[in-house]
Fold each of these.
Amino acid sequence: MRIALDAMGSDRGPAEMVAGAAMAVREADVKITIVGGEEQIRPALKREGIEGLVEFVPTSQVVTMHDSPIDAVRKKKDSSIVVAFELLKKNAVDAVVSPGNSGAVMAAAVKFLGRLKDIARPGIASVFPTLKGPVVVMDVGANVDCRPKHLLQFGVMASAFSRIMFNIEKPRVGLLSIGEEGGKGNALVKGAHLLFQNSGLNYIGNVEGRDTFVGDVDVIVCDGFVGNVCLKLSEGLAEAVFSMLREEIGKTLKAKLGYILAKDAFANFKRRVDYAEYGGAPLLGFNGTGVICHGRSNKLAIKNAILVADGLVKHNVNEHILEILENAKPALADLEDNHIPAGVA
Amino acid sequence: MRIALDAMGSDRGPAEMVAGAAMAVREADVKITIVGGEEQIRPALKREGIEGLVEFVPTSQVVTMHDSPIDAVRKKKDSSIVVAFELLKKNAVDAVVSPGNSGAVMAAAVKFLGRLKDIARPGIASVFPTLKGPVVVMDVGANVDCRPKHLLQFGVMASAFSRIMFNIEKPRVGLLSIGEEGGKGNALVKGAHLLFQNSGLNYIGNVEGRDTFVGDVDVIVCDGFVGNVCLKLSEGLAEAVFSMLREEIGKTLKAKLGYILAKDAFANFKRRVDYAEYGGAPLLGFNGTGVICHGRSNKLAIKNAILVADGLVKHNVNEHILEILENAKPALADLEDNHIPAGVA
């Protein structure tokens, strides 16, 4: 398996990305092509002792978080994101992993590889930890204004991902809404509910925000605006909870002592909610394989993202998507037949 | 101050509501009229020893969580929700507090009292704890499909509430979105951003889900679908965090001992994130005062909700809303002048 790692555009800098690559090549049977600025990458490769173990493609430009995705892909032709996807296009690698501007990653994927047949909108899936197994949430930011058919396709793509990564043949799919009854929600969700019922997916109906972390559903579908808000809200809340707990524990000597005794429990707990364990968010719906990492990714997160990319290619996620989509087509065809107005469908 | 307490429709039953009323009358200078089923309320009044301290209006019907709000208000004329708002209409009380079906509470408020002048859509505000002070989020569920002008009015109403409850003359208002730049978000948020800039509110721009719990903003505005998802997601995550922590701590004797030593810190922490401390969500934008409590409200939450209702009436929240709305009118007038298409504005 050959994976291009975009080593630029992360908050922690290229050295941390190279360290992640080093972990991955030592742990798994993957070939990595690191893409990024020569000055930063060369010394990091040396430090990690992987100069002979990975390929390196130097680039001169960086897409920042403030760049407009479309402009960046058009104008920064020698950026690590663009060059990584060009490598994918000419089949020099099998997948791209990037911690950079997710809009630009998406734009590059679609520009160079094209959308998967019959997928209207590629999207980003993210894995949330729960009390039981992990849950896949899609879309988490690529598509902010959606129609019901887009939500149905997110359900299809996320089901394929869940099947591959968590070995669930028929993942339970829920629509994120504000009440459990199918009639509840906004116009988008109400429209999507009708489609999902007839989709061949293992659709269990609406789920509420409260259900997200319980773990009784494998896939949660929402538009990219709601998904992105939920993702960042969860991160923010988890951080706030740790801060408050630390503050309270710091107030008395007795509590501090208690914390020292319970330290391993806290560490285990932190590991359970740590995004780094889940290894990035797959970009689904284009003719290729890509994984987007959190901008703050540490080397563990990068290593895990590389392993996720490896799994997606090995199990051919796009074939699973097309297979599941085939079963959902009658629902989508009904939609066209019924001439549901554009604002609703 | 005279407050009607709808004692039906909560998860914990009428006795807990009566216990909350007992706490309130003993702590503050409020007159309470309890509305609900005679068989359950009478013995509870006796048990709490407040038979002579509160009024009681018996009702024979209960609006459940599964009732359609509009139907319930029309057909269940002797339900506690309907009767409580009738008391408000004929000025027998100054405010209503209810833990019942929030849609039905909203419908009854609008039916019996009417919308506040120039407010297109009344909504529900909720208080979230943060690392610093509390933050007011609106709307959290009353309006699932919104236009930009509705968001602006939520900003106006939530600012009035923040001013009164937290004594902030010019609350900082943020629009919940998926990027900090004003150009980022879905069509609704982009449209609202333009209105807020010219609204006279202390508008600080977009805020992300991550900012919610940091406490650098006083009011967060979103549509009722997003707000309700966020509210329930936060509850679910907080519960999951406690469960995971409990599980991990239960695994070793050493950790258990540590927990015992740090117990006070945990209790303080729990209090900081406990919804019961914040006392319910005000219903804003109708000609009256109402507070909706969480269905799971315990007596402390009910007591605090009664105190919130008391504060809203005392400080005349509706006058503040109208005053702040006056300053926002040019922004809304621009909107009409520009003939922004209905789908966007």
Amino acid sequence: MDPVAPTLSAVPGPSRRAIGVDLGGTNARVAIVDDRGQVSRLTRVRTDSRPTVVDLILDLVAEVRESGTTDLGVGVPGQVSGDGQRVMSAGFLNLAGTDLAGKLAERTGLRVVLDNDGRAALTAELAVGAASGARSCAMLTIGTGVGGAIADRGEMLTGRGNAGQLGHLTIDPRGPVCRCGRRGCLEVFASGTSLHRMACEAGLPTPVDAFALLDSAAAGESAARAVVARWAASLRAGVDIITALVDPELVLFGGGLGEAAARAVGLAPPGSSWYSTRTAPAALGDTAGVVGAALIALSA
Amino acid sequence: MDPVAPTLSAVPGPSRRAIGVDLGGTNARVAIVDDRGQVSRLTRVRTDSRPTVVDLILDLVAEVRESGTTDLGVGVPGQVSGDGQRVMSAGFLNLAGTDLAGKLAERTGLRVVLDNDGRAALTAELAVGAASGARSCAMLTIGTGVGGAIADRGEMLTGRGNAGQLGHLTIDPRGPVCRCGRRGCLEVFASGTSLHRMACEAGLPTPVDAFALLDSAAAGESAARAVVARWAASLRAGVDIITALVDPELVLFGGGLGEAAARAVGLAPPGSSWYSTRTAPAALGDTAGVVGAALIALSA
């Protein structure tokens, strides 16, 4: 395991602490998190480093567990049951239908709650991050794909368990076919994969460094300007639609390309003054998932 | 005033009753509604029949008020403040900035709560209508324009006060300019106004009878088929986007064209099996607004 620089904090009074786990496609993270969102013992491991996801999580928990910890929250890249116990679908992790919370509870003696990883990240941003104090917020997670979550009146939208699929807003019904089967979803224009493809097509250097690309565009380099303008326009179209539907106080950009995307979207004005809202980068970086998962466990 | 056929109900036990008012662009409605959603003394009057909206509502309240009624709910076609006291914007009613609840409370001695008319209608459908038993539901109101509301876990989304502008989902970024300033909103393809325009352009008889149009299309009449296919496709595109974002158990179609729209959308399959959801007509017709306004007042 790679220990990641922990944010050790002096806790002024007694606080409740939980273990947060964030299951990603490539890396899984674990940390101890207190009820103020302070992180300690943050550790990362490759997702494929253990034969099963259950083994992986058990090892992560063993790594950080301390006396008195009774709660474990796990953020899953997919859909979980309404009671936070079962994984309903989780693409690449091959966990669909698993009573993951039950298995982990049996093996650890901890109280276990699962939630979607996007909702976990937004929970953390609302509690102690860039959306602190907001009651309504949408978060677009810009990475290999585009995900997200929506909060209203401080609560996460769930729908049937799959609310917040913000990558699958239709941006252009004549656009390329998306992996979901529809055409022109936000994901096919705004993801890191798409940004890479657009840069390739424009003859720009790859792999893409999004900040270097933004700087080249700002300096007037025409190929970079064209790619950034298309990226910005698709991000803005997504923000406009989200604003029409859920009218959030702000829209956060998280994920590996979150900061760059927040800068890019500022280059494209809202399609109408009716639907302007504040946009900002997420604040917690790659700790949002573990913090949110632990906070959800503490409040369950 | 035109008395409308009332739904008089034998109430089996003691129940709480409130006055509900639904302010529309053309007509305003008032009724006594009990906490089970049973309606009595439903009355309708033209919105322009009194010099001010306050006078109009006072007359409506006087018409139906009975001893023991302490609560008044008013559905407003626009945005209200988070505390349900002030009108923030209400287009044609010229009420922006008004402490409408305060004025009405002072003049009637009733407790007064305002809410958006789309949220009031969905509140009623969730409580005693077509979404009864559902926890998550979106409602598209298809009339002169297209409005709506969204509920998740039984609660209405509010955002900054303006959530649920479902008429302003982008369906086609190259489409006609909408009154909101953006291009290709759902409203410019799916409203009654748009259906009328499409029928005119296709040389079909106007004013449009939506059910006759659907019947002609079903019988294979080519101009009708083309118009209905375009209408259905735009409604379906809206449902797909709503489903990606909020993943509701069902999407209801209300408003004057609600039943026809629910039939039309059934003709266009979801853009992807990922985002299929149930669609249905709303059940309460033009009483949804008064019922919802009263229920909101009773639960305030």
Amino acid sequence: MITKKELKQINSLATKKARKTEQQFLVEGKKSVEEFIAGGFQPKKLFSTENTKLKGAVLVTENEMQKMSCLKNASPYLGVFEIPQANVLPNKGRILILDKVSDPGNLGTILRICDWFGIKNIIGSLDTVDCYNPKVVQASMASLARVQCQYTDLNEYLSKTPLSIFGTYLVGKSIYETAFPEDAILVMGSEANGISTELEALIGQKVTIPKKSTNGPESLNVAIATALVLGEITR
Amino acid sequence: MITKKELKQINSLATKKARKTEQQFLVEGKKSVEEFIAGGFQPKKLFSTENTKLKGAVLVTENEMQKMSCLKNASPYLGVFEIPQANVLPNKGRILILDKVSDPGNLGTILRICDWFGIKNIIGSLDTVDCYNPKVVQASMASLARVQCQYTDLNEYLSKTPLSIFGTYLVGKSIYETAFPEDAILVMGSEANGISTELEALIGQKVTIPKKSTNGPESLNVAIATALVLGEITR
């Protein structure tokens, strides 16, 4: 069973402010909890409604679990994990930069895409949605356990990096005709506004996903666009 | 202003049953309403909270519009459109088949991807989510006005088609090494279960999106996978 104080603390982790203060986040679902542990994340508390082999899991009732959960239908497993300490921002390999991506579902999907294509690092603008947001964690299906996501002032970071910088725009060189080096940065902008104007001067090569229809949609969803460009970069 | 009877009829169109009986569906948002009209869809009723140049639009209050709307925050424009009559199922060109895709957001995104890549026809299994579901229409961002989506017994359809049939699986020939003919069928299964076992014998070529990580996710979201395969087919 859990105490009122514990429940209150766990519920508070739905907010960015509490996650920042406590340096903790929630993971729900058996597979996800196991994958975060396997990924080296430190569990602070584990809860389960079933007898489980998870070391140190506290048995709770389904009612208690639902009260802790951010999901409409709670999973039988919930873990409170430590947010890992910030690392030095990477300057080699393939790095995905997200500029003002605000939708949690999109970031979760993008984490999963990076995980699929072996991209180990995402750097978000300071106003990109927090990767420890429960909706992002859920949508990432534990890919957040394997892909490092950090946040910084993009203007500063991109000004200093020695890597080639590619930015995805509605107009640019076709991704199918672009040679992407082994080490490179790919910048994706928000769906509504694209890459910020202030970053434009830092983009070395504007690339685009060719549209095959004349009267089709104006743009693609940012997760879809990310998948198409990363698929091409890593093929 | 609108009558109680009208409001009741409009609200009923959130359900598949009423859409089937009435052969009508809802479109919200100025751009979407305009694009469905431009796409040749017949508006039965148009409503607006602003003075508009849309021919025949009835002026309503914001309160009335919110009562009609399926959105949390109603748009100032709403149209009730006729569901077009079923066409003969296509047997040429590139056709996307969806087997048991149940998430409205995924179907909406897939409609937009097809629209981007110039794919004109989607055929869903009878248990695939209804394309006139308000959430699908919304997520498609009016691509449903340009991409035809129909439903049928896939076993029957695939048994009779003269086209080559490609199916996306977790194991198969790499999409990057597969030659896709100009006229071909691509089958995508549901994320949870993949392509139904009963359809497997009808798949001419199993294809796969190569995973570039060793311990990455088990699968990709069905909309992401569709984008990657269609991008490769149409490049």
Amino acid sequence: MTVNLKVPLKKTILNVPGFRFLTFGAKIKLKNIKNDIVIVELNKNSKTVAVFTKNKFCAAPVLLAKHNLTLNDPQLFVINSGNANAGTGQKGIEDAREINRELGKYFSLDPNLILPFSTGVILQNLPLGRIKDSFKNNLANIKYSSNWIDAAKSIMTTDTVPKAVSKKFNLGKNEITCTGIAKGSGMIHPNMATMLGFIFLDAKISKTLLKDLVKYVVDRSFNLISVDGDTSTNDAFVISTSNLAQNSVINKKDKMYTRLRNNVLEIAKDLAEKIVRDGEGATKFVEIEVRNAKDLNESKIIGKAIANSPLVKTAFFASDPNLGRILSAIGNAPISDLDVSVIDLHLNKNIVVKNGMLSKRYSEDKAIQAMKSKEFKLSIDLKRGKEVATILTTDLSYEYVKINAEYRT
Amino acid sequence: MTVNLKVPLKKTILNVPGFRFLTFGAKIKLKNIKNDIVIVELNKNSKTVAVFTKNKFCAAPVLLAKHNLTLNDPQLFVINSGNANAGTGQKGIEDAREINRELGKYFSLDPNLILPFSTGVILQNLPLGRIKDSFKNNLANIKYSSNWIDAAKSIMTTDTVPKAVSKKFNLGKNEITCTGIAKGSGMIHPNMATMLGFIFLDAKISKTLLKDLVKYVVDRSFNLISVDGDTSTNDAFVISTSNLAQNSVINKKDKMYTRLRNNVLEIAKDLAEKIVRDGEGATKFVEIEVRNAKDLNESKIIGKAIANSPLVKTAFFASDPNLGRILSAIGNAPISDLDVSVIDLHLNKNIVVKNGMLSKRYSEDKAIQAMKSKEFKLSIDLKRGKEVATILTTDLSYEYVKINAEYRT
């Protein structure tokens, strides 16, 4: 099930100068017939910045990728689905290193210039033999692909639709090309889902500002969906630029930087939204806006307290305006000095709660009508500051239980 | 669905000297035909201590009960199901006061000596008219009940089995009688479920030690299940003693106190366990033991991180030993200095994870066999201290979604 989400048209997804890639199958899950490996080659001048999960059981590829990023800008990404190489201890790290060494031979690269990314089942070792065989079959004579949708497909696990977005925009007179792909599976609990997001572009920008860009963008996109970018064992969000565009290097926070940032953010938000729309078992797409908070973090915490409540989510699924569950979720958010007696709640444009209690103008009929739609918006006014954040989430359906109960089988 | 839980036999549930009660129906939910009001009369010398939800959207009856407890020991409880009187603002408080005033007339009591308890739908006003009518019909000529199972039934919402436990024990040569009733509905998210627990006994004990007893008992019973006592809008746990037993007053932490505490804890643990076994949609009963933690709180946090993960719970439902999800849940628990590379995990007596990775002695067949059972135990060894806590929880099934999607209809 998806909520208003389609496979992108091939012609809309652009190749970015300086990046080449190919995909192939390694039967990482033995029964899999789809491609499960993507290799992305980056040009020599490219720069890469990434943010990773904060989960303490973080996966071997995360540890290795983090380490390699401290050395030099990477020249190659290897991304696999089907197996997370997490909970695999020292053996997992050795396996990831072994894959890098092997790839280094085919691409004549120092293995330390390769970043591994894995998602899939936890607590299983990678099938090294099958992976090496797939390298032999596909890398002895490399045929690059030009269809990024294939790459987006190959990194999917329980996703049902490949997620890719492209954009061209100008910095001054110079054209910039930007393409992002992402995958995200689980969606109900922000610290469980496994999410990968990659954005490739060609704009010239200093490493310092690229770091600033990644942080700014992820906080306002992937970190605002209920598949939270910062806590699974394998989550990663990566921006790489080939530096091949003709713009003069962006090295201060000027208009050009802002323009670039806004364009990249747009791509990231679009990808993040697609992850929610393809959320496991999703039948509804719900925006939760938390307004007039003291700070951004407070609005996020409250938005996620609502988005992650199973009782709220099952009410979404049933199109049941059992909106008291939302108040209870707000009351549970760890904001110690919250005054709930001033809070307003709107469902689309209709008022539900005024100053902490049911509004006299509340209409159950209108509420049911709004919630029967595939998409609706909740807006919570905290009346204590000026910040706003909008969390994107879905409902909790029978299908969610089914998908996750049957995932490994 | 329940997991190995039966209606208690009437003869096993004892009347406690000093407490009288009756139950009747007020059609608080219009369609309800079951009794939905319980009134408990406490003798003049009784003492009562209670702990309530920490939810900031806490309900009107919670605010009033807390207030009245600061004045004098209560003489009457009025407990209703069907409506939580939460998210009802000042009107909700006035309604609760009005009910107390009305009851005060029938029982010739100061309304401040009455404690109200409500659970049920949030954001709806109590049907005052129907409640007052029910008082007129049932309190003009009071017929007390002697069957506590009826009381346990009347406070149920989505519970399927009434929960009551009794015990007689001696303090020295003096016999003490103790009876508890409880209700608990949701179960998946500790800060959403609505739980009530009442324990009545006749032991003589000082108010100071009764306060100590409540805290000790709730922390080791209701606060260790995934229906957490401290965060819904209406949760309450209450111990009342009539002081009618013949023991000399317990006023220091001596052997007698310890003996009393252990007996009351046993009742409370039994009630809490019953709430889990009757958890919404439950098909499995799972114990999660977290051993060798630095402190009790740390083991609770980790146990609940596992118990509240939808991905873990759906794997329980599927009898699928996708045990990596447990590691991921541990890695997400907010314990900043946790060393995951030393952690062991057992499923019943079989080792799964040794030092943070899959044990060589792990047997998938044995794991599946264990998880196919209706009850099993996970044991996590943190190897960093000496404390242990055991969280009780269930799986997440289709039925859970169904119950919560259809709750109001």
